[in-house]
């Protein structure tokens, strides 16, 4: 039998104890008694719990009219998180965000600043397709923003990219305009933690307003610069 003792002062009568044929090892290092779950497994569990919570939402017009939940795509361990508005028809069919025309443009935007889509994490404000692809209503944005904040806390990104006014409104409120707020690094505080955030135009908007792409390109260059400064692998 072997016992670990911090120092000799812990033994009142060493000779007497040794007579019981017990071998003592003296160690000045503190014993680590804390056992924690691996962080990766814990994150996966939290993601599944959040997904289940959204799947079980009640009295939701979005859910009642959609084909399926569109939760997220990409690497949950990424330090970059992109948030869009909501699923469209293609997303509703495939169960993944940003797979329609706007998704193809998003892929090109990311590639332009040397980011591989699979290396980042992507979700939307609302997780079910709005009827007829309409914009989510304020009450829906507010309701789903609670899930979104949990989602951000679980992923814990170093850079948060909000694409479009709906994503901006969900996290910063409806009183600001994207035309004035885009391209500026902002601090988003969730559960006493600050997330570095960039607001930019949604790819779907850029498909309708091609002249605005120059502003998005400026935003993308700022994002790339910050990625390099923070030495984030993408």
Question: Overview of this structure, please?
Answer:
The protein is an alpha/beta fold and about 230 residues long. It folds into 2 domains: about 1-35, no CATH class; about 40-230, 3-Layer(aba) Sandwich (Uracil-DNA Glycosylase, subunit E). It contains 10 helices and 8 strands. It has helices spanning about 15-20, 40-55, 60-65, 90-95, 100-110, 140-155, 165-170, 180, 205-210, 215-230; strands at about 1-5, 25, 75, 80-85, 120-125, 160-165, 185-190, 195-200. It has a 6-stranded mixed β-sheet with strand order 3-5-4-6-8-7. It has a two-stranded parallel sheet with strand order 1-2. The longest helix is centred in the middle third of the chain and has 18 residues, at about 140-155. It is globular, with a radius of gyration of 25 Å. The protein starts with a strand and ends with a helix. About 30% of the residues are buried. Mean pLDDT is about 90; it is low at about 1-25 and about 30-35.
